[in-house]
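Fold it.
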Amino acid sequence: MSLTLPPKVTARAYERLSEINAATGESKALRVAVEGGGCSGFQYDITLDEPASDDIVLSGTGGTVVIDPVSLPFLENAVIDFTEEVIGARFVIENPNATSSCGCGTSFSM
């Protein structure tokens, strides 16, 4: 059985999470989950949430990212980042395990 390597979170993603928490006056974690669905078979679900007791916790300057144990294998060696473009700003996932993804970047297949 191989060890699953957790995803990496960029400083920019932690910084944006810190800004969101400061603006809301809360201290929530960024939850990144993988669910069945979307146009490619799997989709990312990114929300603000409280950590659960069985979550994998990634901490950095300005925030915490949590991943449930079921989603972790789908996110092995992925990079969680934050991007700002003309069309909007969002958290993005660069997933080396995805064999294809949709145009919007929220769903993928393996």
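The longest strand covers residues 29-37.
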